[in-house]
Amino acid sequence: MPLIEFQDFSFKYYGADFLALKKVNLTINEGEYVIITGPSGCGKTTLCRTINGLVPQFHRGYIAGNVIVDGMNTREHTVAEMATIAGLVFQQPENQLVTLNVEKEIAFGPENLGVDPVEVRRRVEELISLLDLEHLRDKHPHEMSGGEQQRVAIASTLALKPKILVADEPTSNLDPKSAELILDIISKLNKRDMTVILVEHRLDLVSKDASRIVLMDRGRIVADGSPREILVMDLCQEIGVGVPKATLVYKSLRKRGIDLESVPLTGEELANLVKEAA
Amino acid sequence: MIILENVHFAYDGIYTALQGVSLQIGDGERVAIMGTNGAGKTTLVKQLNGLLRPHRGRVFLDGVDTKRYSVAELAREIGLVMQNPDHQLFLDSVEKEILFGLKQLGFSSEDARVRCEKTLSNLGLEHLSERSPFTLSGGERKRVALASVLATEPRVLVLDEPTIGQDAKQKENLAQMLQDLNEKGRTVIVVTHDIEFVIENFPRTIAMANGTIVADGPTNSVLSNDDVIVRCSLTAPQLTIAARSIHSVFPEVPERLTLLSNLEGEIVRVLRGV
Q1: Helix (H/G/I), strand (E/B), else coil: B227
Q2: ipTM of the modeled complex
Q3: What count of CB pairs under 8 Å joins A to B?
Q4: Mutate to test the interface with B, among A44, A175, A231 (most CBs of B within 10 A)
């Protein structure tokens, strides 16, 4: 059974005059690392909100079709119930942090779900070590850099032990090094069997880690496949997706009659392919 | 001409966000400010329009100390788009949001309407003009905030992280608009982590770390300095990484290539052996 299944799902926010999602069919299995990308306003964030039930339980609107997550129909379960299955991380960590220090922040979610205090303590310690937060333990979120805040936000999301991590542009406010660190953490979590769904524009940073890219445009899924299949499609440039520069070089070389062995996603891969071909 | 002279600033005296920053930006320049989270970039640009005032040091606009001006007066000359659009947007339609600034600055209603329409279309927002900004996506809200300032064509444009949430096509549109305004003599200053956007559009880069300027000069030389890259938590762009790696085997390929067409040309030469 797939972990996430969108069945002909459409959604229109109350008060909006267009559909945010149009007949979306999408199946995601346990352990996948899926990047959702597409032009601004194409429905990526709505799709994320759908996976943990924020749509339609919190963001109300008109629905058709179903979303089944871990066997639960999101029409029938509260956000609190879904939160232990799918954890959401947002672009602005400060919108997500609510307490006065890192320990309390991580404990906040499980405490609210009535998890045994001993278990809460265990999770807090485990996440502080996993996300390298020891030096921040007693700090107020406002005393931290954006990258540190985002690590705390991820930790507090993971404290609910979700099967799925949904991250909606988690690095867009971060400097490149901090962004790399967050993306490395996400990739590491995926290797430890976490299913990851990541919304991202900067495909040059993430394509190498992902197993799959889902391309959206105007509320629809317009392409779905491995990064190397998707990023060479002209459709990407037509709808305005930021194809990694290394992949663009591959494409323009091909137009000039030079076929490299495979599709590069990073600068190193491109350089190695050129060295092999020479 | 903007001059900062040894500017210091601390939030609530807790930590020092700017520790003696001095710089000069001439009329009609295009300048990028880059650096780690918490380096002081946003604090720096808020000094320019008086949202924050230096605790020590001075800020001059055309030779006059800006402490003589109110924020409202400075806003006529210096338009700031903040990093988070939600700190800036407050009206219930995109069109009203754009018209608000234009009216405050005294544009006639007809002129304001023309500017509003043109800006909306340049930023791909025309189909959203009646919508409430709060129902838009993050990337769209960011473009509304940009439009509300770009429409007024201030003499100095200061954009804090303008490319956040923007896809490749929107980034190109934005770059084009900034170039057009620059050709009309406007000064453009951006704060950004987007190294490719900087390389393609900004001839000068100021790199910051820990409340100080660590490098200020032509973009190509600032961003190919490994020390700057490390201190400012930047990562080298893909093309530079590829060029360096190819250079290590084929020394005839320059290691400092930042434009796609140049690297492509070099690869063709290497592979065709000419």
Answers
A1: helix
A2: 0.84
A3: 144
A4: A175
